[in-house]
Design the sequence.
């Protein structure tokens, strides 16, 4: 049995560890890293104007199946995500692949019972404490990834050697691959917090501060937004974002009401998925003295399209500039993004210097 | 009071309920005209580029109604229960309108059954805004709902009669607001009828029947409107000569649900038509003609 699942940023590391613990007899094989080929293959077998994450997922699945995977995991969620698994299963079957699809998350969230049943079916009899332990490790790793990345985003542009943070994050992730215990994660956390702290950074007091908001997949998956964050570091900007796996797994439900309050008076009701958060986050960024906001979404993403009129009013009222970027499957998306970001940064600089804007 | 109803999106589903409800409470109802190129152009102008065609048309109708009535009715629907969701576009209609037209007199009600906000409660809330007691609103709602159900059954019965026709029977599968809108999908039905087909519509079928068939064929589908369409397609498949799926560009829900139906409901010739704001009808008639040719050829071969 070979298990695989779709990619999302670098979360394949904790997911691999988790699945390997739950299914000790199986081989856990994350799909090959997302490449232009993944997207081409995915787009070719997906409906034309389905949202881009669907196409990435299909590409991941096909590449994993080609490498011998025969059990696929797919999550689910709000908006259209909940129906991904069904259609993807149908598409892959029509292509002639033989596999089993396990839908782990319903729209009602993660259930221990489902997890245990799936593990039992695969021949591993696990006790609940064991499963909870494995989940804790996964959540802790996810939190740590998010924490270090959050820190890196704020100062990556200002290290003396440009790639310091990126290579540090890479070695952290390589180390995380081999950690199987809570204590190991704690040790790793302490070690890398220290290393990150010891890196010399000099953030100038007038550095450009930019917030990224938008749809979760396109915000989190660097390939999907064509490495937008790296592009911003090149322009020497402090970057921050709100959406990450920690938020989605542990905070989203708790904060739902507060997020809607923060989005008032621009929104009266939740507008679906992360749309409400986009508006609330944009308001917070405006209040926090950020210089600009970049809104990222897959083409025609309904919740984010819903949020755009509110973002427009917010931008008009608080004078915070917002750049809207949509991504689909075009090869030239990276160039388009770079040009637009460069122009945006130029305008932010002019505004900051009290120029014509 | 004069209540404006934009003739777009949910209007095609709730028109009888709404008009009857407001009439019973003694209000006047103003409905915007059938979508025309001008309304469409206004809608496109005020909308976010990537918004779907029905969404754009909706804003055009709202813009038309501003200044012509005291209130514009814009419902907000999230779900009708567990696994009975609607497109997220409908979660945000009134917020989109409020931000696009800050001075529009929006009258909204909120259906979110998962959180205990049922349709009746939504209509009580609606009545309250118009200064009616809960009792008055509930009575008006009950009467209006009965009336709407009655009309729906009549339409359903009329459609059943069509099944006896000898012309090639084609089922149109698409949301009412696409199939019935003049600038969206109405041209599809017109084109097929001109070519001699007997056109049935998936949105004019008994919803209890379609819910059952949908639950059987696509248990994980959770969009109520698409469940009904899927169910109708599955239920009527044996009587049909062809099925035409009609999607408005770029409807994400249909992209998933129609694709699923196309792959699952095999055995009947199917055709998928996407309508957009470009309004070119030459491409459409070419596709409909060739589809009809195939159906005729199949009939001859039998």
Sequence:
């Amino acid at each position: 049995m070979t298990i695989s699942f779709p990619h999302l940023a670098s979360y394949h590391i904790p997911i691999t560890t988790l699945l390997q613990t739950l299914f000790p007899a199986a081989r856990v094989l994350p799909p090959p890293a997302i490449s232009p080929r993944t997207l081409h293959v995915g787009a070719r077998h997906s409906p034309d104007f389905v949202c881009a994450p669907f196409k990435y997922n299909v590409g991941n699945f096909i590449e994993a199946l080609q490498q011998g995977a025969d059990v696929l995991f797919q999550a689910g969620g709000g908006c259209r995500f909940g129906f991904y698994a069904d259609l993807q299963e149908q598409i892959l079957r029509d292509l002639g692949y033989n596999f089993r699809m396990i839908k782990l998350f319903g729209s009602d969230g993660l259930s221990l019972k489902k997890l245990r049943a799936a593990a039992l079916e695969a021949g591993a009899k696990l006790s609940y404490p064991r499963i909870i332990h494995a989940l804790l490790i996964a959540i802790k790793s996810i939190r740590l990834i998010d924490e270090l990345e959050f820190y890196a985003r704020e100062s990556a542009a200002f290290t003396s050697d440009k790639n310091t943070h990126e290579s540090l994050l890479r070695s952290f992730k390589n180390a995380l691959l081999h950690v199987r215990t809570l204590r190991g994660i704690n040790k790793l956390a302490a070690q890398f917090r220290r290393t990150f702290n010891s890196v010399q950074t000099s953030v100038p007091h007038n550095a450009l501060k930019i917030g990224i908001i938008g749809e979760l997949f396109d915000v989190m998956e660097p390939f999907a937004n064509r490495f937008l964050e790296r592009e911003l570091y090149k322009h020497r900007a402090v970057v921050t974002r709100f959406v990450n796996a920690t938020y989605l797994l542990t905070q989203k439900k708790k904060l739902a009401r507060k997020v809607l309050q923060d989005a008032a008076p621009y929104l009266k009701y939740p507008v679906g998925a992360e749309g409400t958060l986009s508006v609330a986050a944009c308001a917070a960024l405006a209040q926090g003295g950020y210089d600009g906001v970049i809104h990222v979404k897959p083409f025609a993403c309904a919740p984010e399209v819903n949020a755009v009129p509110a973002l427009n009013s917010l931008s008009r009222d608080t004078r915070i500039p917002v750049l809207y970027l949509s991504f689909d499957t075009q090869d030239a998306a990276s160039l388009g993004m770079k040009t637009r970001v460069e122009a945006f940064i130029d305008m932010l600089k002019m505004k900051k210097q009290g120029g014509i804007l | 009071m004069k209540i404006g109803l934009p003739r777009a999106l949910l209007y095609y589903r709730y028109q009888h309920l709404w008009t009857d409800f407001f009439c019973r409470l003694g209000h006047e109802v103003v409905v915007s005209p059938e979508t025309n190129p001008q309304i469409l152009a206004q809608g496109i102008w005020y909308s976010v580029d990537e918004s779907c065609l029905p969404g754009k048309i909706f804003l055009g109708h709202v813009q038309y109604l501003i200044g012509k009535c005291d209130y514009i009715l814009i419902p907000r629907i999230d779900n009708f229960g567990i696994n009975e969701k609607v497109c997220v576009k409908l979660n945000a209609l009134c917020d989109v309108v409020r931000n696009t037209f800050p001075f529009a007199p929006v009258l909204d009600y909120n259906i979110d059954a998962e959180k205990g906000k049922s349709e009746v409660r939504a209509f009580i809330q609606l009545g309250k805004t118009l200064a009616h007691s809960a009792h008055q609103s509930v009575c008006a709602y009950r009467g209006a709902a009965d009336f709407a159900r009655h009309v729906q059954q009549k339409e359903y019965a009329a459609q059943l009669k069509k099944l006896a026709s000898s012309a090639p029977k084609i089922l149109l599968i698409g949301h009412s607001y696409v199939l019935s809108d003049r600038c969206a999908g109405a041209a599809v039905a017109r084109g097929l009828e001109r070519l001699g087909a007997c056109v049935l519509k998936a949105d004019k079928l008994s919803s209890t029947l379609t819910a059952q068939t949908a639950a059987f064929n696509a248990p994980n589908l959770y969009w109520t409107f698409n469940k009904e369409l899927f169910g109708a397609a599955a239920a009527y498949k044996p009587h049909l000569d062809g099925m035409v799926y009609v999607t408005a560009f770029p409807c994400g829900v249909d992209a998933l649900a129609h694709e699923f139906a196309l792959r699952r409901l095999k055995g009947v010739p199917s055709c998928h038509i996407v309508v957009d704001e470009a309004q070119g009808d030459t491409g459409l008639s070419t596709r409909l003609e060739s589809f009809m040719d195939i159906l005729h050829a199949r009939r001859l071969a039998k």
Q: What stands out?
A: The longest strand of chain B covers residues 242-248.
